Structure prediction request, 188 residues.
Amino acid sequence: MRADARRNRERLLDAAVELILEMGGEPARDAIANRAGVGIGTLYRHFPDQQSLLHAVALHVLDRSVAAGESALADSATGVEALRRYMHLAIDHGVGVLNLIYPLLDHANWPEQRARAESLLHAIVDRAHREGQLRRDATAKDIGFTIIRACRPLAVGLPPADERALAHRHVDICLDGLALEACRPPPG
Prediction:
């Protein structure tokens, strides 16, 4: 794929993520093209139907959030720090979109991304457990569902920036409760 076509595809996917989170559902294709700053024909060339667009959005979000989590794990000084960074990055990369588009998909099966995400969550949680920083009963599955819940838009009419700020706050509150006392950030 040419560099300009790849950039347009990324812009379309980013615009779709933004609009899905803002609207709480499936946006019109012309709204996605407008937000991305491209013509509707460009959108149709990349995504000929709604299913191909929604599947690409899901893969885009999963791939970006897992890659960010892998970097957080590699670059963080502690397991709890890696967990906190990954959870916040998942919010920033739009994982909440998956909650909204899942029921719209003909089939939602991404075995490669699912395996990478599960492996990543297990690695982060196992590290935090080994380092004695995380409650022993907190599992990778708990963390995965916490991310999903925190990323889901509240559908109460809040501006997107407020939604995101609340999601970040809720992740911090949850993690502060899961982290052992010595690993919690100072109040304030």
Summary: The radius of gyration is 18 Å. The mean pLDDT is 89. The CA atoms of residues 66 and 117 lie 6 Å apart. The longest helix spans residues 50-75.
